[in-house]
Amino acid sequence: MNVGKKVRLNRLFSHPSGRMFAVAVDHFINYRLDTLPAGLRNISRTLELIAAGQPDAVTMHRGLAVSAWQPYAGKIPFILQSSLLRPDDCFHEQIADPEDAVRLGADAFAVATFVRGPSEGHYLKTLADCVKAAARFEMPVITHIYPRKFGADVSISFEPEDVAWAVRCALECGVDVIKVPYCNDLPAYAQIVSECPLPIVAAGGPKADSFEAALTMLQDVVNSGAKGATVGRNVWGLPQITEAVIAVKAVIHGAKNPRDAMKLAGIAP
To answer: Domains in the chain, ordered, with CATH?
Structure first.
């Protein structure tokens, strides 16, 4: 690994725990939403509240990086999301490339990928092409890779075998960090993590029934040996965004249990 890539990865995984906690605000176009969630409406205010909690990184598309990230530039690492896509394949486009990540000062380049189903090869070819392009700049590539299941609707699969398949596909494409859903089975996820030579971080998942439930899932992620998590709706979807960041950090970096993490952050259970 060239020193340039190592420098960037070290910024993302700089905490003594060896794990990374990133907040994702790259949700707008990639989700079928009836209305823009309250937590994403005033994005400048949301970023201010997120930054106040000092996460290890924030993931966003290029438009937010250019228009809203300047107050935090160089203070908190950011990951440039490059993909616009939906699980049902109604669209799949790349709107940024690794050169954009260098130009904007990003610490990593993210590519969203879906596997399982007839379009799997197309997604993996896009991912591999991005890895090749990023190598020129020693820019780390993080894939946000999700296995799908097909029925009346296309949805994300949380089955351990599907999650393991997604991890192996990402590994074969040459990425540096793999973000993949937690499979809701601690021994199975621990096995997936132990068998992968790359860092695995968990996707924060859909909106949990409660913040305590979200923290419990993240506690399992830490106990599995994974290298952290990227969380979106279970942070900016709460009224107390800064406090949510602090509580998640307490679980991921401080190995606190959910109740103690919420107490530390000043959030009522």
So the answer is: 3-205+226-233 (3.20.20.70)
